[in-house]
Amino acid sequence: MNENNIIRLEVTDSTNQDAKTMIGSENWQDWKVIVANSQQSGHGKQGSAWFSPEGGLYFSIILPKAGIKDIQIMTILAAFAIASVIKDSYGLEPMIKLPNDIYLSGKKFCGILTENIVSGEDISSVIGIGINANIREFPDDLSATSILLELGKEVDNEKLMQDIVEEFKKYFKEITN
Amino acid sequence: MIRRSRTGLLRVEIIGIINMDFKIKIKDKVYDISIEESSDEKVSIKVGGRSFSFNASTSKTEEVTVSEFGKTQKVLSEKELKAGLGGIVSEIFVKQGDRVKSGQKLLTLLAMKMENEIVAESEGVIKSIIVKPDQAVKEGEILVIFE
After folding, report:
1. Does the predicted interface ipTM exceed a cut of 0.90?
2. What is the predicted pLDDT for the residue at B19?
3. Do you find a cis peptide bond into A99, omega within 30 degrees of 0?
4. Contact A118 B74 (CB under 8 A)
5. Are residues B114 and A115, on separate chains, in Cβ contact within 8 Å?
6. Which residues of chain A make contact with B110, given a CB cutoff of 8 A?
């Protein structure tokens, strides 16, 4: 990935919100990625909170306008891309709960939230991905796990993000070419 | 079972899990798909030789609708903003009498586990807002009327 296409933040409210704000601005580029070390207001669908402490991987991708009628397929493609990377890189067995959650050992470790800005026929899309990568502990009320807990060792968040973006790009190009 | 409804929706009905192999063609590329039922109500799907597991229930009919995306419908009257697909109105950011700019956020519609910010296509004044927060709307339903 081109480093110029990545915006790195120490902390933010929500990388999806940052990405949506960026859409339409001078800095807007297809495949721009916003990544943060932690989120203060990370959320899933319908505003549900996404536990986002340091150690996790939180990033959003601004998608090119591909004229795809079924945008929801993007969420599913992202799920496949993430599961594929997790399986190939770490030998874990992810389970996809369609369309936007991924589990390891029966516990959620990844959530995907696609957000669209719709102006008549014009649609801009952002895919937000939250992965419990190197998180050791979770609140008692969360049935969650992390790659660290499943693997027994830390993973390289930077490599994980880049692998996922590249895998997703590959799928994206296959269905849009 | 996959069928296209009169409204243009592509409807996928999972009416039971059976083991099967089939091909799916996206654009000009053909993918080999293999579906196998495994233990614990899990289903393994192999795409091009790679395997993924899904949860599934064989005890009831599960229906998943994959819709052509819910962009706002091309309006018959330019003064009406209609829902492109069914969903739940989660937030409304404007009120009657507001003058809105092009690109200004009007409301958020939750549909198919996606959040859709509906923004104004052009400048205008809001005559009335037909929907309320948490209201379920159907495809084609009027959301906002402009003066």
Report:
1. no
2. 58
3. yes
4. no
5. yes
6. 45-46
Q: Note whether A118 contacts B: Cβ–Cβ < 8 A.
A: yes
pLDDT at A82 over 50: yes
Sorted by where each starts, the structural domains of chain B and their CATH numbers stand as 2-65 (no CATH), 70-146 (2.40.50.100)
pLDDT digits (tens, 9 = 90+) for A10-27: 999 999 999 999 987 776
What pLDDT does residue B27 have?
59
Which residues, other chains included, contact B83 with Cβ-Cβ below 8 Å and sequence gap of 6+? B70, B72, B73, B109, B137, B138, B139, B140, B141, B143
- Residue A158, CA distances (Å) to A38, A56, A75, A135, A168 in order: 14, 11, 21, 15, 15
pTM of the model: 0.74
- Cβ contacts below 8 Å, chain A against chain B, sum to 99
Mean of pLDDT values over A159-164: 97
Kindly state whether B119 is in contact with chain A, defined as any CB-CB distance less than 8 angstroms.
Answer: yes
Check if CATH label 3.30.930.10 holds for domain A3-176: yes
End-to-end C-alpha distance for chain A, whole angstroms: 20
Answer yes or no: are the C-beta atoms of A80 and A94 closer than 8 Å. no
Q: What is the DSSP letter of A47?
A: G
* Domain boundaries along the sequence of chain A: 3-176
Residue B72 has pLDDT above 80, yes or no: no
Query: Each residue of A108-131: pLDDT tens digit?
Result: 999 999 999 998 888 899 999 999
